[in-house]
Amino acid sequence: MTFVRVRLALDRMTSGETLLVRLRGEEPRRNIPRTAVEQGHALLEEEDRPDGTALLLLRKG
Question: What sections of the sequence does the record tag as coiled-coil (predicted)?
């Protein structure tokens, strides 16, 4: 379900805009960056946080 929400947010954006995403769990942390890049978006930054979450900064392609 997490990727669906990220995809909907990216679909509403214009090319070049950035989206900051906070993720929990191993599966979203593996799949969302990979899938976003496969769909033509750029992964600008990925940060693992002490609370177990990860922050991703994506730029819409």
Answer: none
